[in-house]
Amino acid sequence: MFHQLWFKKVLGLFVVLSCMAMIDHEARPYLLGLIAGLVIGVYFQFRSRKRFSEFFAISSHELRTPLTSMKLQIQMNLRSEFDETRRQKLLEFESQVNRMSGFVNKMQTEAESANINESIYVRHVTTLSSVEIR
Amino acid sequence: MNKSILLIDDDEDLREVMSMALAAVGYDVTDFADGKIALAGMRESDSSPGLIVVDYNMPQMDGPSFIHKVRTELDCDAPIIMCSASDSFHDLPDDVMILQKPMDLEELINLASAELPL
């Protein structure tokens, strides 16, 4: 619920209403409401970032083992493949796996830096999709 | 000359491909799915391996615990390569080599042959 857009909108409305109410002479309770709203907002924003960070760290870790398996298998096949067409195809696969590996490493770096935000997440997922589609 | 490698990784596909890769260059590879089973295998075996390649995270006994037992209980001083999908490592002796997943075939073979020349 706390990560839903409607909740954030309600929270924002609450903050705005609190600010408006401060104009009146009985401002103290509303000021307290405003502060409480801000504290709650910051708390949930922090929690949201933490979850993104954890998600990135776990995904990165989980993807590395299958990527290693694919990479080693491709490179083993490349060692024994002398047909030029097949070699080229394997080299393409290797290049794509390397791109994925780079992406996974970047995810780990992002998770560690703890500066995760939704725009970074969306950008990474878009990159992942484009790798899969190719 | 001892050319035997003990390979321990819980991922079956990776274990298979690493085993094939190391066997292809001339090593005798024995593989296990977990540190606990590998320890039992080492206790039963007459000879100790020339090199140990072990994963960091495993379900029953993880890499660091396995290494600790190998060094203390079995008194085995074979070089150890730790393959890991993690970036942070804890409780590892200084002489353990670390290979970060996803590694290249060349990296694996070069490190293995540096530690255990063919």
Summarize the structure.
With 134 residues, chain A is mainly alpha-helical. Chain A is 87% helix and 0% strand. The radius of gyration of chain A is 24 Å and the shape is rod-shaped.
Q: What does the model show?
A:
- The complex is a heterodimer of chains A (134) and B (118).
- Chain A is mainly α.
- Helices cover 87% and strands 0% of the residues of chain A.
- In chain A, α1 (5-21) packs antiparallel against α2, α2 (28-80) packs antiparallel against α3 (84-113) and α3 (84-113) packs antiparallel against α4.
- Chain A is rod-shaped and about 85 Å long.
- The model of chain A is unreliable at 116-134 (pLDDT under 50).
- Chain B is 37% helix and 20% strand.
- Chain B has 4 helices and 5 strands; from the N terminus they run βαβαβαββα.
- In chain B, α1 (12-24) links the parallel β1 and β2 (28-32).
- Chain B is α/β, with parallel strands linked by helices.
Number of helices of chain A: 4
> What can be said about the biggest beta sheet of chain A?
none
Overall mean confidence score, pLDDT of chain B: 91
How much of the residues of chain A is beta strand, in percent? Answer: under 5%
The description of the largest β-sheet of chain B is:
5 strands, parallel
What is the alpha-carbon Rg of chain B in Å?
A: 13 Å
Class by alpha and beta content of chain A: mainly alpha
Strand order in the largest sheet of chain B = 2-1-3-4-5
Largest interface: A-B, 20 and 19 residues
List segments of chain A where confidence is low: pLDDT < 50 over at least 5 consecutive residues: 116-134
Q: Helix content range of the residues of chain A, please?
A: over 70%
Total helix count of chain B?
A: 4
> What is the count of β-strands of chain A?
0
Could you tell me how far the N terminus lies from the C terminus of chain A, measured between alpha carbons in angstroms?
36 Å
What oligomeric assembly is this protein in?
A: heterodimer
DSSP helix fraction of chain B? 25-40%
Strand/helix succession of chain B: EHEHEHEEH
Share of β-strand residues of chain B: 15-25%
Given helix and strand content, the structural type of chain B is: alpha/beta
